[in-house]
Amino acid sequence: MNLDPHYYPAASRRTVTFGKRGMVATSQSLAAQVGVNILRQGGNAIDAAIATAAALTVVEPTSNGIGSDAFALVWVKGKLHGLNASGRAPQGISCDGVREKGHTEMPAHGLVPVTVPGAPGAWAALSERFGKLPFEALMAPAAELADEGYAVLPTASRLWAQAHTRYGQYDGAEFAPWFEHFAPDGHAPKPGDVWRSPEMAKTLRAIGDTRAKAFYEGELADAMDAFSQQHGGFLRKEDLAAFTPEWVDPISVRYRGHDIWEIPPNGSGLIALQALGILDALGDEPHDPVESVHRRIEATKLGYVDGLRYITEREHMTLSVEQMLSAGYLKQRSELIGHDAIDPQHGNPLLGGTVYLSTADDEGNMVSFIQSNFEGFGSGIVVPGTGISLQNRGWSFSLDEEHANVLRPGKRTYHTIIPGFITKDDQAVGPFGVMGGYMQPQGHVQVVANMLQDHLNPQAALDLPRWKWVDGKTVEVEPGFPDHIAQALERRGHRIVRCTDGLTFGRGQIILRHPETGILQGGTEPRADGAVLPV
């Protein structure tokens, strides 16, 4: 990988970070410190990822929680492993059952869109297979943060306030525990306010002491079941007890001499792979920034048209992953890209709430890990006395019986969260990810192209102003996106919308390893309160 550590575009905010013995990159600096401390205590990259993920539920509850789902790509001893810890729909749910509650489509909030949370199961599964330190030691730093409290950072405060307004529109009793737990003073915490949660601390310690069995089979499962039944939800203890994270074979596509890896469906990483495969089929880009951005937008649109039409749980898909990533098909799709913007008929990207982290150690292990509530705090449901905020992943299901992602009992829904990984010549290059709902595949395309086509270092690749395809020919661009390129894209038929909120364009982290020296090179998202910390 020929990345120039000295080159920075005008938009760069900070310099690239180097490390020798290990590295942790994530969106909240306290969580990154937790991961680095685990490495210093003799833990490996997997231990660091687990501890960081648990800490993020405390210090960035605006995007994830103990009731989140999770996915991971793990490089250990020369092999890449995939973990799908997305939960299934409750066995008692159905399209008719949702309609009987007065809904014409899956609701965004409340107990109806809650599926089985997978994150605690992911932590335990990763620890059991690849970890070095005791599992309870990995939960301890997060529990300590929850007990002692921490000063809320600006980005989290802003998202917290938005959630306070969002859930304030509901008067159902099931939403009251969210306000009691996350806004006990009647408002979201402001930047610098100290927030603590003894309930989360107790729950995290119970998860640590039982390797997550308390969450899926014990007292925490009892509490989730009771609250769901009390307020008309579908989730039951039997659904929790049946959950098992699934180890999967990652899927990949070639791009600029590298292999780009994602988790297979029900995750949406297939969209990013299709887009990158289409770009690779087009060949090297000319030295024209307008043509480069145009091609990347068009390839992403084509990937999304297929992804939103076909991706659901893998066994329910009408097209196979192999068909959608075949060289002939990608070449055929690339031929649709010309001088002017095309108008695909499907796709409506939304804002999401997710955390992403990368870790690496001095043994060569590397982890790409992502966990999410889906939208902000998720469903707006907090289980009283536990600090467990439940995700709203079921919101992605359709009540249309003809839709690929139609709701079914025990089914896993289309999932936006996707960890990424790069290899070259069967050797690890490193983990990358860009969180942010339906922005994620688009963020993957942009940062990978920035690094492998434009040869930017990880920090510069994250710093560049981003674009986001919304639907049709509409593309949003964030503050700082070059005006002359925006105008040139408009002359090609794109409808460019200039946005003032950079948070809707995703937040990423990257760690890459030099193939000869082993030196780590990391970047962290300038749009978040994160850090990339070396050991």
What's the rounded overall pLDDT mean? 91
> What is the distance, rounded to the nearest whole angstrom, between the alpha carbons of the first and last residues?
23 Å
* Structural class based on helices, strands and sheet pairing: alpha+beta
Radius of gyration: 22 Å
Strand content: 15-25%
Helix percent reads 25-40%
Strand order of the largest sheet: 1-20-19-15-14-9-8
Weakly predicted, low-confidence segments = 4-11, 346-352
Form type: globular
Number of E-type strands: 21
**Quaternary class:** single chain
Largest sheet: 7 strands, antiparallel
Work out the count of structural domains. 1
Count every helix, treating DSSP H or I runs of 4 or more residues as helices: 18
In words, what does this structure look like?
The chain has 535 residues and is α+β, with helices and mostly antiparallel strands. It has one domain (31-423, 438-454). Helices cover 36% and strands 20% of the residues. A 7-stranded antiparallel β-sheet has the order 1-20-19-15-14-9-8. Strands 7-4-3-11-10-2-21 form a 7-stranded antiparallel β-sheet, covered by helices on one side. A hairpin with a 4-residue loop joins strand 12 and strand 13. Helix 2 (45-59) runs parallel beside helix 5 (135-148) and helix 13 packs across helix 18. This is Gamma-glutamyltransferase family protein.
